[in-house]
C-alpha cells in the first residue's frame, strides 16, 4: 500500500531508526522528528505517510537536476553492467578519465584527485598545500589562512579550518592544528528584497586582509576560502573583491589559494563556480555535492600541473577512489548541466526567491533576508526551534532543514516558479511564527 517502504511500514522504519541509527548533528535518539522517505521524484519527496514535499534543500546542495532523473538513472545502470567498482591504484577506466577531462576543461586546472566526500577533498587539498610547501623548500610554512564564519567539513583537517568559535566544531578546538583566521567578511553581496543596489566592498576589510596575510606570509602554505558564499558557517554572501584580493596576496607572497567550491560549484550562485564572480582561478579547487547531481558520494580536489609536478607522490588513496558508478553518474550530471539553461534557471529562481521572501523583511523575528543565485536565506534574530519550523514548512508541503539562526533554501534548478513560491510561502510563514 501507499504507506509502505519496501517491506516495512512507516512505524517499523521509524522504530528501528530510533533504536539503532545516529543522524547527522543529532543526539540519539534524535530530539528533532525524523521522517521516513518512500520515493524522491523530480523536485518532490514522498514520505512514507503519503505526504508529498517540494524539496527546498536539494539534499544539501546536491540534487540540482531533481531526483530519479532518467539520464542519471541510466548512467548508473549502464555502468553497473560493466563494473561497479575496481581499485584505482594502477587501474583506470573511461568514466573516471572522462570526468577528469571534463572537470579540467571547466576549471582550467590540470590534475584531478578523486575522493569520496567533500571533507576528504578538503583534507587532500590541505595535504597538497603542505606537501607543495615542503617540496618547494618552505617546510616551515605549516599553517593555512582561513576565514571566520567558514565551514569546510567534519574531518580533523577540515575542522581545523572551520570557524573555531561560532562553528559546530568548538568542542575539538583544543585538539586541532592552529591556523590563521581572517575576520568574517562583511556581507554585502547578492540581493536584499527592496534594495536596488549592492554596497561595494569595504576598503577597511580589504586592508585587514592585506595586513594579516603580510604578517603571516612566512608561515602560510595556503589560503582556504569558500568563494563568495560561506555555507554552513552562516550562509553569508561576501563581495568578490575579497576573493580577488586574496588571489593577489597569494601571488605576491607565494601562497597557494584553495577554493572550496563544494557547496558553491556547478551553478548554484548563478555562475558556474563561486570563483567566476571574481574572475579568478585558484591553485587548488575542491568540488563535491552537486558533482553527481546528488546520486552518489563523490568529490574531487583539482590542481595545476605546477603544483602536482612539485608534489610528486601524494600520500592519499581512498579505497573507493574514482568509483566507476560515481564517476559515470557525475559525467552524466555535468552533461545535463551543460545542456540545461542553468544560468536562466538560477536567475529565475533568484528573482522568485527575492520576490517571495520580501514579506519577511520587516517581521520582528527576522534579522536579514538575502538571496544569491538559487540560494535564499532568512536570518532570524534568535536561534530557531527546528522541529517547530519544520512542522510549519511541512504544513505548506515543503522540505527544509533550518539550523541555528537560518531558515534557508537551495532548491533544485528544475523547480518551477510555482514550486519556488511554495518554498518562499513556507519560509515566510515560518518567519511569521517567530
Ligand atoms: N566544504 C563545504 C563548503 C561544504 O559546504 C561541505 C558540506 O558539507 C563540505 C566542505 C563537506 O562536504 P561533505 O559533507 O561531503 O564531507
From TrEMBL:
This is Adenosylmethionine-8-amino-7-oxononanoate aminotransferase. Pathway: Cofactor biosynthesis; biotin biosynthesis; 7,8-diaminononanoate from 8-amino-7-oxononanoate (SAM route): step 1/1. The keyword ATP-binding does not apply. Keywords: Aminotransferase, Biotin biosynthesis, Cytoplasm, Pyridoxal phosphate, S-adenosyl-L-methionine, Transferase. It comes from Planotetraspora phitsanulokensis. It is found in: Cytoplasm. Belongs to the class-III pyridoxal-phosphate-dependent aminotransferase family. BioA subfamily. One of its GO terms (cellular component) is cytoplasm.
Amino acid at each position: 500500500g501507499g504507506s509502505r517502504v519496501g517491506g516495512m511500514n512507516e512505524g517499523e522504519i521509524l522504530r528501528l531508526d530510533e533504536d539503532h541509527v545516529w543522524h547527522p548533528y543529532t543526539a540519539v535518539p534524535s530530539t528533532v522528528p525524523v521522517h521516513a522517505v518512500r520515493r524522491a521524484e523530480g523536485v518532490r519527496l514522498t514520505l512514507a505517510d503519503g505526504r508529498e514535499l517540494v524539496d527546498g534543500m536539494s539534499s544539501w546542495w546536491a540534487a540540482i537536476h531533481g531526483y530519479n532523473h532518467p539520464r542519471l538513472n541510466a548512467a548508473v545502470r549502464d555502468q553497473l553492467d560493466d563494473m561497479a567498482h575496481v581499485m584505482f591504484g594502477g587501474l583506470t577506466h573511461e568514466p573516471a578519465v572522462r570526468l577528469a577531462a571534463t572537470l579540467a576543461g571547466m576549471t582550467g586546472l590540470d590534475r584531478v584527485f578523486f575522493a569520496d566526500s567533500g571533507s576528504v577533498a578538503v583534507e587532500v587539498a590541505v595535504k597538497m598545500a603542505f606537501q607543495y610547501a615542503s617540496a618547494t623548500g618552505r617546510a616551515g610554512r605549516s599553517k593555512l589562512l582561513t576565514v571566520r564564519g567558514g565551514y569546510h567539513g567534519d574531518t580533523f583537517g577540515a575542522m581545523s579550518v572551520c570557524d573555531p568559535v561560532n562553528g559546530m566544531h568548538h568542542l575539538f578546538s583544543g585538539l586541532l592544528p592552529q591556523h590563521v583566521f581572517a575576520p568574517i567578511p562583511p556581507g554585502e553581496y547578492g540581493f536584499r528584497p527592496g534594495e536596488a543596489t549592492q554596497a561595494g566592498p569595504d576598503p577597511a576589510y580589504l586592508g585587514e586582509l592585506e595586513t594579516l596575510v603580510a604578517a603571516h606570509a612566512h608561515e602560510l602554505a595556503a589560503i582556504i576560502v569558500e568563494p563568495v558564499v560561506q555555507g554552513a558557517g552562516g550562509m553569508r554572501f561576501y563581495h568578490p573583491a575579497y576573493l580577488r584580493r586574496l588571489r593577489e596576496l597569494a601571488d605576491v607572497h607565494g601562497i597557494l589559494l584553495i577554493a572550496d567550491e563544494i557547496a558553491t560549484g556547478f551553478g548554484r550562485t548563478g555562475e558556474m563556480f563561486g570563483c567566476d564572480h571574481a574572475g579568478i582561478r585558484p591553485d587548488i579547487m575542491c568540488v563535491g555535492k552537486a558533482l553527481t547531481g546528488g546520486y552518489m558520494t563523490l568529490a574531487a580536489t583539482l590542481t595545476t600541473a605546477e603544483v602536482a609536478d612539485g608534489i610528486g607522490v601524494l600520500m592519499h588513496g581512498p579505497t573507493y577512489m574514482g568509483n566507476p558508478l560515481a564517476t559515470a553518474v557525475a559525467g552524466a550530471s555535468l552533461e545535463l548541466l551543460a545542456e540545461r539553461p542553468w544560468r536562466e534557471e538560477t536567475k529565475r529562481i533568484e528573482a522568485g526567491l527575492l520576490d517571495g521572501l520580501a514579506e519577511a523583511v520587516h517581521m520582528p523575528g527576522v534579522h536579514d533576508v538575502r538571496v544569491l543565485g538559487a540560494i535564499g536565506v532568512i536570518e532570524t534574530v534568535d536561534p530557531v526551534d527546528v522541529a517547530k519550523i519544520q512542522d510549519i514548512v511541512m504544513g505548506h508541503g515543503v522540505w527544509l532543514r533550518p539550523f541555528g539562526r537560518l531558515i534557508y533554501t537551495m532548491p533544485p534548478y528544475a523547480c518551477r516558479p510555482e514550486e519556488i513560491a511554495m518554498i518562499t510561502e513556507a519560509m515566510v510563514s515560518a518567519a511569521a511564527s517567530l
